[in-house]
Amino acid sequence: MELRMTILIVDDEEKILEVVKAYLEEDGYNVITASDGEAALNIFKNETVHLIILDLMLPKISGIQVCSNIRSRSEVPILMLTARWEEEDKIEGISIGADDYLTKPFSVRELVVRVRALIRRAYRNKEPLADVLVFNSGDLIIDIKKFLIKKNGYIVNMTNNEFKVLKALLTNPGQVFSREKLVEKAFGFDYDGVDRTMDTYIKNIRQKIEDNPKEPKYIVTIYGMGYKFME
């Protein structure tokens, strides 16, 4: 069965919400709407969302803050809408993690085309990462949304950075990541740690999810190349 993707539209203009929602639903997407930043974050926390259309100027919590908050814990594609023309605003949106932007007023048809392109780029040759992943009949359970990991039925405590590394590996199971690529995938280009820090993260994660950390079955080392998560 083909996955029907869900798009979250965040804008305080009711007309924009109605029109964009109608066009995207016509194009085959599930659509959820929010009229302020606080509602958007609550929806993202509790729903599976595959792409976000995000207005820059929002009540309660700004679009910039929403984008920054979401990008700190997810790689979901974000298309930012802005009524401003200043180049600095566009640069700021892209720099904190927006994948694309449109300036108001915009063509809804162009927006739909950009949405298709972002989704195609983000999910090419792979299904979006499920919210809950279960391995070996429940030996290991990872709830991405709730930031919850269970090993043999017991909750595992994991730091934020350790979870980011684990999630980066899970996003591309079977793919070998060098230390440099894993740092980039987990923390972004601006991470100021050293590559060898990754070895410490991997060691700690193995201690928490492997039956025998010295003979790992989930996160394995490919000597001379890096690490990969075994499906």
UniProtKB/TrEMBL annotation:
Signal peptide: none annotated. One of its GO terms (cellular component) is cytosol. Residues 6-119 form the Response regulatory domain. InterPro entries: CheY-like_superfamily (IPR011006), OmpR/PhoB-type_DNA-bd (IPR001867), Sig_transdc_resp-reg_C-effctor (IPR016032), Sig_transdc_resp-reg_receiver (IPR001789), WalR-like (IPR039420), WH-like_DNA-bd_sf (IPR036388). Residues 130-231 bind DNA. Residues 130-231 form the OmpR/PhoB-type domain. One of its GO terms (molecular function) is transcription cis-regulatory region binding. The keyword Phosphoprotein applies. Keywords: DNA-binding, Phosphoprotein, Transcription, Transcription regulation, Two-component regulatory system. GO terms for biological process: regulation of DNA-templated transcription. May play the central regulatory role in sporulation. It may be an element of the effector pathway responsible for the activation of sporulation genes in response to nutritional stress. Spo0A may act in concert with spo0H (a sigma factor) to control the expression of some genes that are critical to the sporulation process. This is Stage 0 sporulation protein A homolog. It comes from Clostridium acidisoli DSM 12555.
